[in-house]
Amino acid sequence: MFEQFVNGIFWDIALIVFFVGVIGRLATLFLRSKRIDYSEPRNSGISGAIMANIHGFYPRKEISSRVRIQVIAGYMFHLGFFILLFFAAPHVKFIAEHITGFSYMTIPYWAFIVSAQIAFAGLILLWVHRVLNPVTRLISKRSDHVSSILVFVVMLTGCMALAEASSELRALHRFSVELLMIYFPFSALMHAFMFVPSRAFTGAFLGRRGVKV
Amino acid sequence: MTRIKDKKSSRIRKAIYCCVLSLVFVLTAPLIPYVIDAQADDVKTSKADKIIALQSPAINLWNEVRQRNAASEGTSQVKGVDSGILINKTGEDWRLFRMEMLMPYGAYFMAAIIGVIALFFLLHGKTRLPGGRTGELLLRFTLNQRTAHWFAAGIFWLLGITGLILLYGRFVLIPLLGADGFSITASACKEMHNLIGPLFILAVFALLVLYIKDNFFKLSDLTWIAKGGGMLGVHVSAGRFNAGEKIWFWLVMIFGSLLCITGLILDFSVFGQGREIMALSHVIHGISALLLISVSFGHIYLGTIGVEGTLEGMTTGYVDASWAKSHHDHWYEEMSAVSEAVKSAEKDTEVGTASPSPSPAAGD
User: Fold this and answer.
1) Band of residue B363 on the pLDDT scale cut at 50, 70, 90
2) What's the Cα-to-Cα distance from A92 to each of A11, A13, A88, A156, A193, rounded to whole Å?
3) Residues of A in contact with B183 (CB under 8 A)
4) A70 or B36, which is more confident?
5) In degrees rounded to 5, what are phi and psi of residue A64?
6) Which of A1, A18, B91, B246 lies most in the core, judged by the most C-beta atoms within 10 Å?
7) Least Cα separation, residue A74 to chain B (angstroms)
8) pLDDT tens digits, residue range A118-128?
C-alpha cells in the first residue's frame, strides 16, 4: 500500500507541485514590473551580469581564508550531488522511464559511490559549520535546517537502497525524494534555479553604476 | 539583542529537534508493518516450532569433503583468490570467535561501562563548577576544531549504530521486526556502513591534524592518573588536555586507524585479500569498534551531564574561567599570561599613538 501510494498518486502530486512551483516562482521573478533606469549607464550592465556570475564561483581574496570550509565543503556537496543525481545509473534509468523518455551516459559504479561519499562529507560539514559558526547560525532560518536535513534523508535513504535488495527501501527513497520535491519551490533550495539570475541582476545593477564587480 | 539571539537560537533548536524527529519517523515508519507482522507471528507460532534442526543428514558427506587431516588447498580450473579451497577451515574458528567471544564479551564490556558510569553518576552526581560561573570566557576550541569534532562524532555514531545492528541485530531486532523486517534493516545498515565508512578516514585525519599539538603525554600526566583525575575529590592540575583526554585522543587515533585500515580491507575485497585476511580484519575491526564505542560512553558522559560547563566548549567554543581553573589550571594560567601580554601590548600601542611626540613618519 505504501509502495503503491509512493509510486502512484504521491509521485504525481510531487511532480506537479515541483514543476508548477518552480515555474511559478521563476515567472514571478521575470514578469514583475521593472523600474526603468533613466540614468546614463557608466558601464555595461551585461558585462556586470556576466562578471558577477563568474566571480560568484570563488571567494574574494580578502575573505578567502575565513570561508575556506564553506567553499571546499560547498563544492564537494554540490558537485558530488550533481553527478550523483544526473549520472548515476539507477537515476538515469528512472529519469528515462518517468520523465524524459530517453537515456544518456552513466558513470561507473565506483564513481557513483565516490561522488556519494564526497557529497555526504560536504553536506555534513556544511550543516555542522552552519550550526557552529555564530554568524551563519544567526542568519540561518528554520527552512535552511529543514532543507539540509531533507537532502540528507534523501541521500541516506538512497544509500540504504543501494543494494536494491528490497522494494520497500526503494519506496522509502522515492518517498523522501517526493517530500523534497514538494518542499523545494517554497524554500531556499530554489537557489538551484535562482543563483544565475540573481547574480546577474545584482551584477547588472552594479555594473551600470560603474562599480567593479 | 541578547533576547532576540536567545529567541532565534531557541527556534533553531526547536527546528533541529523537529528535523531529527521527522528523520527518525521517516526512517522507521516503513518498518511498522513488519513489527505488527512479527508480533502476530509470535502469537501464532510457539517457540518450539521456530527451532531449526541443526543436524543435517549430509553431515557425514561434508565431513569427508572437508578432509580435516589432509591438505586444505586443492586444484581448480577457476582462477582466483582461495579458489582451490573447497572448505575454509579457519572460517569455523572465525565464526566461533564472533559468536562465542566477540558478541557476548563485547556486550558485557559495553554494559559494564554503562553500569559504572550510571553508578558513578548516582553516587557522585554532576560535578558542579566550584563557586559558580565568573562570566569570564576563554576560547577553548576554534571553529575548525569544533567542526572536525562534530563531523567525526556524527560519522562515528552513524557507523557505530549501523555496525551494532549488524552485529547484534539478529538477537534484538528479529523478535521485534521478524526475519523479513530485519533482513531489510540489515541490508540498509550494511550499505550505509560501507558507503559512509571511508569518510571516517577523513574524520580521523582531521582530528589528528587539529588536535595533536596539545595531546602529547608529559610526566605530570602520571600524577593526574595516580590521583584518579580528580574524581576522588582531590584537585589535580592539568594543562590544556588532561591525561584522560589524551588517552581518549590516542585511543581514537590508534583504534580509529585500525578501524579505517581493516574497514578498507573488508569494504574493497577486490585487491586479492583472501578469506583469512578478511576474517582477521573482521576480528580487529569488531574489537576496535566495541572498545571505542564503550569508551565513547565515558567521553559523552563527561562532556555532557557529568561535568558542568564542558559541553559549551565544544558548542560555542568558549568555557567559563571557573571551569578552566577547576579542571585545567595550568592551561588557565597560560591563557591568562597570554591575555595579560596582549592587554599590555595594546596599552603600549595606545600610549604610543596618543603620544604628542612626533613619529618619524609624521616628521616626514
Assistant:
1) very low
2) 17, 21, 6, 19, 21
3) 165-166
4) A70
5) -60, -35
6) B246
7) 14
8) 999 999 999 99
- B108-146 residue pLDDT tens: 999 999 999 999 999 988 888 888 888 899 999 999 999
Residue type, B58: A
Task: Please state the φ and ψ torsions of residue B198, each to the nearest 5 degrees.
Answer: -60, -20
Rounded to whole angstroms, the Cα distance separating A113 from A119 reads 10
Q: Which residue has the higher pLDDT, A107 or A165?
A: A107
Closest CA to B326 of B262, B199, B238, B221: B238
Q: Are B338 and B163 in contact (CB under 8 A)?
A: no
Looking at residue B357, what is its pLDDT?
A: 44
d(CA B304, CA B168): 27
Query: What CATH number did the domain enclosing A110 receive?
Result: 1.20.950
CA–CA separation, B200 vs B209, rounded Å? 14
Provide the residue type at A22 as one letter. Answer: V
Top-confidence residue, B193 or B85: B193
Cα–Cα distance for residue pair A162/B279, rounded to 1 Å? 25
Segment A144-200, tens digit of pLDDT: 999 999 999 999 999 988 887 788 889 999 999 999 999 999 999 999 999 999 999
A213 assigned to some structural domain? no
Contact across the interface for A142 and B154, Cβ inside 8 Å: no
Distance CA B34, CA B182 (A): 9
A137 three-state secondary structure: helix
On whether any CB of chain A is under 8 Å from the CB of B139, the answer is no
Does residue A212 form part of some domain?
no
* Residue partners of B335: CB distance under 8 A and separation at least 6: B138, B324
Measured from the Cβ of residue A70, the count of other Cβ atoms closer than 10 Å reads: 16
Q: Is residue A80 part of a domain?
A: yes
Whether the per-residue pLDDT at B294 is higher than 90: the answer is yes
Grid coordinates representing A19 are: 514543476
Question: B193 to chain A: which residues are within 8 Å by CB?
Answer: none
Q: Which residues contact B330 (CB under 8 A, 6 or more apart)?
A: B237, B238, B239, B240
Name the residue type at position B246. Answer: K
* Total of domains in chain A: 1
Number of inter-chain CB pairs under 8 A, A vs B: 99
Listed in sequence order, the residues at least 6 apart from B303 whose beta carbon sits closer than 8 Å to its beta carbon are B310, B311, B314
Say yes or no for a CB contact (<8 Å) between A69 and B147: yes
Mutate to test the interface with A, among B12, B20, B25, B37 (most CBs of A within 10 A): B12
Residue A88, chain B, CB below 8 Å: the answer is: no
ipTM value of the model?
Answer: 0.88
Asked whether residue A56 is domain-assigned, the answer is yes
Report the predicted TM-score, pTM, of the whole model to 2 decimal places.
0.83
Burial (0-12, 13-18, 19+ Cβ within 10 Å), B46: exposed
Q: What is the pLDDT of residues B299-341, one digit of tens each?
A: 999 999 999 999 999 999 999 999 999 999 999 999 888 888 8
Ranges assigned E (strand) in chain B: 137-139, 318-320
